Amino acid sequence: MTTEAKQGTRERLLDAAATLTYRDGVGIGVEALCKAAGVSKRSMYQLFESKDDLLAASLEQRTSAYVATLLPAPDDGRTPRERILDVFEQVERQAGEPDFRGCPYLAVQIELKDRSHPASRVAHQVKANLTGFFRREAEQGGASDPELLARQLSLVFDGASARAGIGADTLTGLVAPTVTTLLDAAGVR
Amino acid sequence: MTTEAKQGTRERLLDAAATLTYRDGVGIGVEALCKAAGVSKRSMYQLFESKDDLLAASLEQRTSAYVATLLPAPDDGRTPRERILDVFEQVERQAGEPDFRGCPYLAVQIELKDRSHPASRVAHQVKANLTGFFRREAEQGGASDPELLARQLSLVFDGASARAGIGADTLTGLVAPTVTTLLDAAGVR
């Protein structure tokens, strides 16, 4: 394969892995992944050591788009309170989409049940970065305990997306009042 | 098989399904389940239509023990606020156990990604019953909006157990202050 063809094959595999894993779970077979990508198993194994590596790479590749959709741009002129609330508006918006199945980085860790799996490590880091975002905003917003507020917001984020993902809640009228209450209690005005 | 032998086989299968699914996920194979239960596949299929039915029955069977561990006895003389906080103390305690992997009824729904699966239906009902418990306590505790508080507490419950289950948080110093803040905001003293 030329470098360009390899790149195309790689991208198709990453897309198929991200899409099918999100829809069907980490148990998705190599055959199904290769079929969806239109790639032979031989080609797949020339590019990735294993399905585990493909899965980790597919999560990694989606991260920047995920973060860009979810988090406000740095220094957008809004207050930390507004910026935090904006993240939860995005969660509520995403939860309204018909194919929403919750946060992919939470789901993959719950499904794999193996913290040392390469995909779990990628997902763990993405979630830690989100908590880091909340912590910085909490500090800048003058929270009485920025670490506690960051953990609370991460908990609400994961609880909300998990419950919406399984159809236990729509999040409408739930997330904004919950986050507002926590921000108020932490003194972030 | 005698009725007694059938009953024993059935219970071993239910136990194996509950234990292995919680530890390894819903992708666990029929071979592994039967091996762990010390039961032939033929015997399994005489008792259960399919692995899906076995999984649903294993969740159903565990429900009463799960509820008994988690929820306070009715009319135990404590206030609704104390009874609600007690549930979250149980979650924090469970989260400290080495083999804790989060709420089994949340995990199975996230893993199956199929709301019509018999096991998803069982799990959905168990979670709906927990929200019902919170709603009744919220009403009795004079919450300004019992429905909102019940949804908030369910969200915290699932967020907390999911995050502890994947090792993203220990819950120490997190759950009690969060629930207390929500109870205070709802006027449940």
Describe, in plain words, how this protein is organized in 3D.
The structure is a homodimer of 189-residue chains. By secondary structure, chain A is an all-alpha fold. Chain A folds into two domains: 1-48, Orthogonal Bundle (Arc Repressor Mutant, subunit A); 51-186, Tetracycline Repressor, domain 2 (Orthogonal Bundle). The first copy, chain A, is 72% helix and 0% strand. The first copy, chain A, contains nine helices and no strands. Chain A has helices at 3-24, 30-37, 41-47, 51-70, 80-95, 104-112, 118-140, 146-165, 175-186. In chain A, helix 1 crosses helix 4 (51-70). Chain A starts with a helix and ends with a helix. The interface between A and B is large, with 45 and 45 residues.
Ordered list of secondary-structure elements with their pairings:
The structure is a homodimer of 189-residue chains.
Chain A: H1 3-24, H2 30-37, H3 41-47, H4 51-70, H5 80-95, H6 104-112, H7 118-140, H8 146-165, H9 175-186
Helix pairs in contact in A: 1-2, 1-4, 4-7, 5-7, 5-8, 5-9, 6-7, 7-8, 8-9
Derived from helix and strand composition plus strand pairing, the structural class of chain A reads mainly alpha
Order of helices and strands of chain A: HHHHHHHHH
Q: Provide the CATH topology of the largest domain in chain A.
A: Tetracycline Repressor, domain 2
* Rg of chain A (CA only): 19 Å
Q: How many DSSP E strands of chain A? A: 0
What is the subunit arrangement here?
A: homodimer
Q: Given the structure, what is the number of helices of chain A?
A: 9
Describe the main β-sheet of chain A briefly. none
CATH homologous superfamily grouping of the largest domain in chain A: Tetracycline Repressor, domain 2
CATH architecture of the largest domain in chain A: Orthogonal Bundle
Shape of chain A: elongated
Please give the share of residues in helix of chain A: over 70%
